[in-house]
Amino acid sequence: MNRKQKKMLARIFISAALLIVLNFIPVTGAARFACYMAPYLIIGYDILIKAGKGIAHRQVTDENFLMAVATVGAIALALYEGSGDYTEAIAVMLFYQIGEWFQSYAVGKSRRNISELMDIRPDYANIESGGKLERVDPDEVAVGTVIVVQPGEKVPIDGVVVEGESSLNTAALTGESLPRDVKAGDEIISGCINMTGVLKIRTAKEFGESTVSRILDLVENASSRKSRSEAFISRFARIYTPAVCAAALALAVVPPLLRTLALGLSGDWETWIYRALTFLVASCPCALVISIPLSFFAGIGGASKAGVLVKGSNYLETLSRTRIVVFDKTGTLTKGVFEVSAIHHSPYGDAKLVEYAALAESASSHPISRSLQAAYGGEIDRGRVSGIHEISGQGVTATVDGHAVAAGNDKLMDSLGVKFIECHSVGTIIHMAIDGEYAGHIVISDVEKPTAREAVRELKNCGVRETVMLTGDTRSVAGRVARDLGIDRVYSELLPADKVEKVEELIKSKDAGAKLAFVGDGINDAPVLSRADIGIAMGAMGSDAAIEAADVVLMDDDPMKIPKAIKISRKCLRIVYENIVFAIGVKLACLVLVALGLASMWLAIFADVGVMIIAVLNAIRALFVSKL
Ligand code: ADP
Ligand code: MG
Known about the structure:
The protein is of the alpha+beta class.
């Protein structure tokens, strides 16, 4: 509870106590009025001030205005009638404030919950100096500093392990409970908890650029991107409040006028004005206004707990309507860790060819490059390589030991005018050219992720009608992967630009309400990620481009998180709609009862606070969607 909430709680208690005490004190007339004004002003002064400001700015469309008019009106009526019954007006204000308090408490709690749920914010970094460990603010650690992480501590900054071995708990980041083992040389991301050994880590980024900070930023800013349902609510409120004010005015004026003019009866003005004021109290749309953003907020929090970062409530909404899922192949459906399976037609010998390939690829972060470097195994002497060019979707060219080396696919060879020998093995073929002459090819193959097949099947169970795979790889490889995984359609041998075009085609050909999601690893498919209705980035920890371009980031490479993300979004949206229907339904019923004179102001405010509490509790359910 913050200070504002505590103060409000105190006002609620004091005002309620005064109200109860006053009920036992027989004062009358002006003294009575003065006595009752004390609890009224204690509980309602801020509402009256806000309403006054609203009127001054000619903005009379909010709840403050409704509450002020209704309660001041009720008090005026009691004065006019000489009944001295001010309790109702005060109680209405009191309940309204209890509702507001509950609301702000719930919102604050769910906001904090999300950060707490993730529990990844590191408080310090250890630096060794003069044989002693010193705790410093992670913000002050420069790139390249060696930090020490002891068992039980959080890794504060992204980096590379230089000494030590340990198991890491990544559950807070990925929702994955299996520990990950690391040793010297391994990359390590911030936010994991070091479990067993002492690790020395050379930082690779500043704290602000590290995974932890970026994730927290994303989550904390997520609620600023509004969904259509939220936009609907604000539009709704703009029309709704003036409409109910007009209706209340009509209720106060029209029936008494009709009675006197048409029927010749007494106007009975008090009854109708009282009904109109009750109508205003009953019309307050707080339940709706608060529960919708809260539901989305809770949904985003629940998703991040499951290792799915959603950058805004609008994306949660789009995700729930996903009908087509388009996948990139390498690194998304497959592990992106290629093994060399054959080497053909090399005049230089196999080892030499792989060495040249690894050197030429030394600057690329493409999975193929990393795999070739791993296959070479040796230390890569960057001094031997110069003039590296990477051609997206084709390969690389570079000068190695003074020789012009090219490594890539058919397209690259064609563009260099090098005649190549077709390969009949199934696999990704890396053709090599050295000094403009064909130098054979390396056949590499990738393995599918173990959960890819199940993920594709699961998608069909959550409303996805079609799955499509786009790849720059050869037709034979693409066909085999698609068959294995049960993908409906495949397009192969695409350049990154072709992928964008294909996705545009698919978007054009689908029905308007259906949404298309693209899932990629962010390596040369960032444009597609941003073009799709919703871009989902896999293995995003490594790729900055993906985090930027994607709308949804899966914190581990597990394709099963895609159906999970969709399920979470659907559940969250269901909660949102439940709340909309429930809140509007009860509200309408109340308004009708009030207009017919069947409900008092008491009942109206009870109904309102009750609906709000139920709606808020329902919204909070969205926090627990990760258990789907
Ligand atoms: P995918 O669509 O499967 O993610 P890419 O678009 O990244 O594939 O690459 C398509 C093809 O381009 C690869 O299958 C490979 O033949 C070639 N290629 C891309 N980058 C490289 C590279 N760094 N080295 C060699 N070949 C590459
Ligand atoms: Mg790719």
